[in-house]
Amino acid sequence: MEREEATPKPPLFAVVGAVVFGLVAEGDLWVQHPLLTVVNLLLTTLNIIAGLVLFAEADQRVSGLALILCGVSNPLGWADQWDWGPLPLYSVLFGYVSPVFGAWALIRYPDERMDRAGRVLITSLGAWTVGVPALLVCVAQPSWLTHQPIGSAWWPPVWPDEHVFDLLSIVFVAGCALMGSVFLCLLIRRLLSGNRRERAVRLPVTAAGIVAAFAAIIVTTTSTFARPRDEVFAVEGIADLAVPIAFLVSVGQRRLMRLVGVVSTFTDAAPTALLLRDMLRLTMRDPDLDLFLRSEDDQSYLDMDGAKLPQLPSDVQANAAGEQITITGTNGSSLAQLRTSSQITDRHIVTAAEVLTRLVLEKQQLSRRLLTAEYDARASIAADLHDGAQKELCALLAILVQCRHGNGSDRDHLVEAACNQADKALQELRDLAHGVYPHALHHAGLARAVDEVADALDLLVDLRIPDKRLPAAVEKTAYFFICEALTNVHKHAGATTTEVTVSHADGHVAVAVRDHGEGGADPSGRGLTRMRDRIQAHGGFLTLTSPPKQGTHLMMRLPCV
To answer: b/e for 526-536, b at 16 or more Cβ within 10 A?
Structure first.
């Protein structure tokens, strides 16, 4: 399957930039507490990666943006490691912004919109985690709020009051604990709501959010009433790592369930081209996706209304933001053109959609060819009846008419002629019935039926067929394959001997027909195409080796069940 190359995407550069940013933002923390710094760096990187994966889905861009902001703002909470500029002040005012963004993503996912309770909580949490630290800045010395003593050049005018500072700190922690408890209740409520599939998607994310929320509440509370230790913050960071990992796991689950939903839809409905297009739109989240099928008759593309498109016009070509994918069959021929309205970042989804499209279209083409072959077979039977048994019966009728009007001397002769004519008509019908379905195949098996066919040909046939009976469908397919192959040898190969070998092993039946005639058989010929279609309809395959002047080797392989 071929496709146009997609335009390179920048997520890798974004992740690298975020990592470098985190390395620089944490400053001297690398030397003082390397474990905490490594955990922070991993948390930043994983949040940004998970955010970019979510952002690639149209209905999850807000959640993805929230995770990206969570990752970017995480190292800025440790900016007080720098003893210059406004960075220490920033770390105090916005040090709790990163958890707010994370809570935003957790409450919203996987819905397209956040409910009212979630919006109220996130708004309150954001105002609380920024507003109260702003008040603390106004009543505290810089050293009361930062990890190390710093200058006050960038600190706003304050009215330090240690009693007020301690009271506000307790109020801040109590408010965070209260909102954290409400956050846990919302997560549990979301986990219990919805159907089984929705709960399965939410489970990893909700469980990770509950663990992270408990860790944040405990660490915030203990660090307020006791001297904060960086090892405790490292443990909290390790617990927070579960959140981006859970998002990545849940995204994989959602995509798998989406594909399962598509397959189940095809189970309950006939896979028409229109249904296929709609399912591709659903799977690839592209409502403007379009599918143009390749016509086998005139080798042109058709739209869903059956209108011929000799050449895809410019207004049908994929636009600059999209891509055009050529769906090819197992034999390399073009089956369809798939046009998307935007570039698809998840190539696994594209590959799955291509495989699904190819399977459905090849099944449709195979069904149509088999149906055409059935119509042709009926026409052939009708022609045989007209040219054979019907002709003999008409001759018999003419003799009987003469017999009815004839005199006694001619009547005996006419009765004898009528009997002979009836025998001819009966033989014609027997031969025709044998060609449609031989009596010996049903009662005696493949070896006996093929032996009768070989005896009727002016050809020396070496048969190597075991007497073991095979499933009826396998025997019928193998029988008609051998009959058509022997007929081709008799008519076209110019060979005097032919070998027919049937083997049974590993749950498959292999049938080989080999001659030493002229060779050069056309694999796209009408007879071989029909033969291949019948075999593929039973889950098998056909191979042809026919170099000029070196004979022909046909081999069929079918599963036994």
So the answer is: eebebbbbbbb
